[in-house]
Amino acid sequence: MPGGNDAPPYHFDRSMTAPGTSEPTVASFTLVAEDGFPLAARRHVARGARQGVLLVAPATGTTQGGYRAFAEAATAAGWDVLTWDWRGTGASRHALPWRDRRLRLRAWGALDLAAAIDWADRRAPAERIVLVGHGVGGQLVGLAPNAGRLGALVLVAAGDGWVGHLASPWCRLRHRLLWGLAVPVAARLFGRVPAAWLRLEEDLPCEVVLEWARWCRNPAAHGDWGGHAGLRVPILAYSFADDPISPHAAVAALLRRFTSASRLTHRRLTPGDLGQVDLGHHGFFREVGMASHWAEVFGFLSMQQEVTS
């Protein structure tokens, strides 16, 4: 595995080009974390007047390909966009043993997200760096030791995963059995948990899912929230009425951790608000019907740039 912080040269995908030009718009490369772990990443190149660098931190079990349409819309708004796959997932799987102890949930924030912020800072030291965190990608932001470099946050379906935040007693019981029994047993027996059990794109490594299970069972398992409390940035958060993973109480609980936010706006939406049949945990990043709300995100981020410049 690579052992430094310098990523190898970009590998441009010539199939991803701007209309009417041969110039590539997406570059695939390896992002290297502080511990030497290689992460599959893509840089979506900004078009038009540059706004800065936008990082997209993915949800659990969701690969960076699920954010391509959103990333392309962001480039049209002037943002260089960085997407990646967390260690042990997607193209960052590397056929490693499922029980590899480097594949930990906490490492996603403390090492992988930190590597993304460092990459942006080294390549655009004078520009703003902002984060769109989906699901766990928003929950983990405070674990990155360099999160103070971020200029604004947009949190999409990001919540505190404790099962006590679920609305119905039956749902809480079902999830206590899932996270307290089924998931830990499967992880220890097979070294992984099948994606279908958790309605994800792909299987999760043993240590990732065991740590996630602890966070779901025990509200104190996450540990210190000081990194979240220390972020003095504007935050725009979205939650969705039909999201079974991050219900309103879970999102509100996470937002309370950002005690130093300079501004906090929480938009709670229903599928009807967006002209959709359903949204769930991933619907915000669908290409169909989301253009106006993506424009709201880009407008929020651009407005914060004007305020701070």
Textual characterization of the structure:
The chain is α/β, with parallel strands linked by helices. It has a single domain (11-161, 231-308), classed as Alpha/Beta hydrolase fold, catalytic domain (Rossmann fold, 3-Layer(aba) Sandwich), CATH 3.40.50.1820. Helix content is 32%, strand content 19%. It contains nine helices and eleven strands. The strands form two sheets. It has a nine-stranded mixed beta sheet with strand order 1-2-3-5-4-6-7-10-11, sandwiched between helices. The protein has a two-stranded antiparallel ribbon with strand order 8-9. Strand 10, helix 8 and strand 11 form a beta-alpha-beta unit. It is globular and about 50 Å long. The chain starts with 10 loop residues before the first strand and ends with a helix. Residues 1-22 have low confidence and may be disordered.
Tell me the CATH architecture. 3-Layer(aba) Sandwich
Strand share of the residues? 15-25%
Order of helices and strands: EEEEHEHEHEHEHEHHEHEH
Could you give the order of strands across the largest sheet? 1-2-3-5-4-6-7-10-11
Whole-number radius of gyration?
19 Å
| Through-space gap between termini | 40 Å
